[in-house]
Design brief:
Enolase-like, domain 1; 10 strands; Arc Repressor Mutant, subunit A; 5-stranded antiparallel beta sheet; DNA-binding; homodimer
Chain lengths: 347, 347
DNA sequence: GCTGGCACTCGTTGGGGTAGAGTGCTAATA
DNA sequence: TATTAGCACTCTACCCCAACGAGTGCCAGC
């Protein structure tokens, strides 16, 4: 009997069965139950030996002496990365997605629908970040005079979204001047991503103060003010948080409060989600992997979504570590793709 | 001993002491504790007699035979309406309010701050409705062409807030036509409340289809589309919900879920808050008085706030029935007044 | 009308005993 | 050498019960 033997086929099969069984009914899994679950005709005693090995490797643990075993975070990780057999998407779910995830006038509405579908279908919490401002591109910008030194700037982006902001300018502009400034900006920067516009604007201000004509300088100055990164970059739409109240893993009020506080703060959650912006497809944080204490009992299944093949945001599902990954993962994946499609401008 | 005797001075004094004591430490109050609490030098036995009377009148009840008494909703109601001695506002709290509740560019920011202060100071949940669209008045309206039949309408209201909306028009307009339409609307309707504008617009459309010139009719038509009641009328900013998780009254997960679901739905809460729009000052719902099952264990202390002496919204505090009314009531009152002040345009 | 005394009720707490689930270890087996 | 049966052991969950304490209602006396 070698303790540090590499994981063989049989051990993996048993680990898989154990995780599946535990996910299914939430009770620690004992050797007898496992012996009945698998096709391998093994006696509970043999399985106990294997389980002892798995425990040595840190893949499972037992809550106390006379309970069965439960997966550790490493156990879940191995299960998800190598053992999981994902289930194809339920056709009902797909129908629901296709029916509801269609273009709307308002980006926020689409995002809201996506979030709600995520939570309704999984019966956990759904989350969708707003498209990163810097990632979307400028379609049109316009200035409207409000009063003496206050100017309303309006810009439309390629996701058909209208943003507005009030600027306090250092001097007074005539409507004609504002019109001219807008014309200049539209002709030069239309089509570029806001990040690119912002970068170019800062460069222009630095380089060419002397050579530019007065009107253009004003225009660039205002563009700089207008494109200050908005707080929408730190926002998301969360749905079905209350679904999480039903799970026994989160029945501790202290923990639950901490989790909901994190939802309210947004900062931490956004930071976590941003880490998935550059992932290829679905990415998963299991329990403490997220690095946030509030999420210790939770897993997060995420996928980035794109507009015009440019990743602009992330969506995902938050639930207890013990969740039906084989169903959630493909669902999150497809939802991200369809959300991207719904946000893509037709023109 | 007459059961249905009118409440005399002494009974009221004892009821007051009982409610205060119960609010303070959350345990059913017994006759002995009450005998020590009050100045009236009465023996526990006498107090028991009075308590029996109060119970007959439905003002207090005992959870079980050998526990003390707790106030019923009627008991709280009587206490609040007639017996409560409100405490003057803590000077620290007032300072906090004055410091943070100042005009901002963005109405939502001010509302958010108000909500947060309400929850931070009371350590319960704070809620502030967004200003009712219909109640604020129109300052300026503008149309921008987007594409063929899509027009962006922008209007600024007297709370310095900018609203925008995309209209799908039946025909195509030139920029000049749009400009003319905006000019017409601004000259005729500027300064009126949105509700008034909407009413006038509908009237114009009905009455004078024939006599109006074409451009004005278009303008009015677009104004009608633009002023469709927005969903902002059904929105509020909630803060500190998680504070409610600490209270033993709400430790039942079922109940808590129901409450948080209600917060998420918004409809019910808005309906409840709207009932306070026409109240003179602070209004209070105790427990089941609200008529909503989810709020059965909660009280709601509200006050309307105004811009230019026109009531436009409501704010309040949500907490367990057992809350320190004598401090919450004046605090909500003052916060409403200061929020109104912060929203009032200077000009 | 108030009070002291008393019997009674009921929830809470903690101890003890048992049943059940599951383990680790050892010795036997293929 | 890998697997299995058997067995002693451990630990939790549950129930029962007794003791305790808080508080009540009622009555008799002041």
């Amino acid at each position: 009997m070698n303790n540090n033997q590499v994981l063989n086929e049989r051990s993996l099969q048993l680990l898989k069965a154990l995780v599946e069984r535990y996910i299914q009914d939430g009770q620690p899994v004992g050797s007898r139950a496992l012996s009945k679950d698998t096709e391998l005709k093994l006696s509970p005693a043999t399985i106990r030996n294997v389980m002892a090995d798995l425990e040595d490797m840190g893949l499972i643990r037992s809550p106390h002496t006379s309970a069965g075993r439960v997966p550790t975070v490493s156990g879940y990780r191995l299960f998800i990365d190598s053992l999981l057999t994902v289930k194809p998407l339920d056709s009902e779910e797909l129908k629901l997605l296709r029916k509801n995830l269609i273009a709307k006038d308002n980006v926020n509405d689409v995002i809201g629908v996506a979030s709600r579908i995520l939570s309704d279908v999984t019966r956990m919490a759904g989350v969708v970040t707003l498209p990163k401002r810097a990632m979307v591109s400028l379609r049109h910008i316009e200035f409207l005079p409000l009063s003496n030194t206050r100017v309303l700037v309006i810009f439309v982006t390629n996701e058909q979204e209208v943003h507005n902001k009030i600027l306090h300018t250092s001097k007074q502009f005539t409507p004609a001047q504002l019109q001219q400034a807008a014309n200049y900006l539209n002709s030069v920067y239309s089509g570029l991503s806001l990040a690119a516009v912002r970068k170019a604007v800062l460069k222009e201000l630095k380089d060419a103060q002397e050579q530019m004509n007065r009107e253009m300088l004003d225009a660039v100055q205002m563009a700089k003010l207008a494109l200050d990164p908005g707080k929408s970059d730190e926002d998301y739409v969360l749905s079905g948080e209350t679904n999480l109240m039903g799970f026994s893993e989160l029945s501790d009020m202290e923990r639950l409060k901490e989790l909901f506080d994190a939802f309210g703060q947004k900062r931490g959650v956004i930071h976590l989600l941003d880490q998935c912006l550059n992932a290829e497809g679905v990415q998963i944080f299991i329990g403490e992997e997220s690095g946030y204490h509030a999420f210790e009992q939770c897993s997060l299944v995420t996928a980035p979504y794109s507009i015009n093949e440019q990743v602009v945001g992330v969506l995902g599902v938050i639930g207890p570590t013990r969740m039906a990954y084989e169903r959630v993962i493909p669902f999150v994946d497809v939802t991200a793709k369809l959300l991207g499609a719904a946000l893509n401008p037709k023109t």
